[in-house]
Write a structure and sequence with these properties.
There is one protein chain. This protein has 2 domains: about 25-185, no CATH class; about 190-335, Porin, CATH 2.40.160. About 5% of the residues lie in helices and about 70% in strands. It has one helix at about 1-25, and strands spanning about 25-35, 40, 50-60, 65-70, 75, 80-85, 90-95, 95-105, 105-110, 115-120, 120-125, 130-135, 135-170, 175-185, 190-195, 200-210, 210-225, 225-240, 245-260, 265-280, 285-295, 300, 305, 315-320, 320-335. The strands form 3 sheets. The chain has an 11-stranded parallel beta barrel. It has an 8-stranded antiparallel β-barrel with strand order 15-16-17-18-19-20-21-25.
């Protein structure tokens, strides 16, 4: 009996789908003009047509687009959109959309999308999407392939690049989040405590993925018996050598503060660190490696430029208002993987 009931349900489901597909099939028209639905050339029947050219003076609710659609406020389509879509406020498409979507506030796709999406506030795709997304907020609720650029970027899964202040990924196996804050489920999160030849003690935090992570850094030293602090920001990546060995390449820019002077005059240490890491355990690693340093300052103490004890210089250059040093150094320390 249960099998018969299941079979009947399946038959009716197939019939319902076929009926829906037949009723949802669209007729093609070369053009339509709508003042505000349903006041327009297609009237109440506008959902039945896909248009090669669609012009919505205020807003239009149509079946689909295969060409160009322009609306001063809202473009809404029940069926597929292929081509160019321009709206002063929002493009809302319920089916697959492909092409160039440009809106003053939002592009909302409740199906899949492909192509270029540009808006002032938000781009949203419910299903898979690919191409380029540019907005304040980009949200791809499923898999995204391509490039997202915005203040906030979100993708469930990405094969491509995110570039923004805040990047959020549920699956970062193939993606590269590039931003100030990159939150990745099962991503790369790590603390490092290191020592160096100029900045004696350093605390480093890394977040992102192994292929690309953001670096936050604080350091301490002393110069002429006076404390020196620094805060830094940068990015880096890990190169896997084996299960227990890797090379990290980190680039950071660090602002130096001498004697609690936080005014922010140019006093900057730029570093490239090449560290060899060996896993002591699953969480802890030992690291050591060389660094290349460029110190640029306009800060003068007792008639001399600089607030760091430079060990030596492979190149230095002084001008009327500042000085630059270059040298190779060494880092060593421990890391904790979170």
């Amino acid at each position: 009996m249960i099998k018969v009931i299941i079979a009947i349900i399946l038959v009716f489901s197939v019939l319902a789908n076929l009926t829906a597909q037949e009723s949802d099939s669209l007729k093609t028209r070369p053009a339509q003009v709508t003042f505000a639905y349903p006041i327009g050339s297609s009237g109440m029947s506008s959902f039945k047509y896909s248009n090669n050219f669609s012009f919505n003076i205020l807003y239009g609710l149509n079946g689909g687009v295969n060409g160009v659609e322009i609306g001063s406020l809202l473009n809404y389509n029940k069926g597929q959109v292929k081509g160019f879509q321009l709206s002063g406020v929002s493009n809302i498409n319920r089916a697959y959309s492909k092409g160039f979507l440009l809106a003053g506030i939002s592009n909302i796709i409740t199906d899949s999308s492909a192509g270029l999406m540009v808006s002032g506030v938000i781009n949203y795709t419910k299903k898979n999407s690919k191409g380029f997304q540019l907005s304040t907020i980009n949200i791809s609720a499923n898999e995204f392939r391509g490039f997202q650029m915005g203040v906030v970027n979100y993708a469930k899964k990405i094969n491509g690049v995110q570039f923004g202040l805040i990047n959020i990924l549920s699956d970062g196996e193939k993606g590269i989040p590039m931003g100030l804050v990159s939150i990745v489920k099962n991503g790369h999160y790590e603390f490092e405590i290191t020592v160096g030849e100029v900045m004696y003690s350093n605390l480093v935090y890394k977040m992102g993925v192994e292929r690309f992570y953001t670096i936050y850094k604080t350091s301490y030293a002393s110069y002429k018996n006076t404390p020196v602090y620094s805060v830094g920001l940068g990015f880096g990546r890990n190169i896997l050598l084996s299960e227990k060995q890797k090379i990290s390449v980190d680039l950071t820019t660090n602002q130096i503060f001498y004697n609690n002077d936080w005014e922010g005059n140019l006093n900057m240490l730029n570093k490239v660190d090449f560290n060899y890491k060996y896993n002591i355990s699953q969480k802890f690693s030992f690291l050591i490696g060389p660094s290349f340093n460029i110190y640029l300052t306009k800060k003068m103490i007792d008639g001399e430029y600089g607030t760091l004890n430079i060990p030596y210089s492979i190149n230095s250059n002084q001008w009327a208002s500042g000085k630059l040093w270059m040298w190779f150094g060494l880092n060593a320390g421990l890391s904790l993987k979170l």
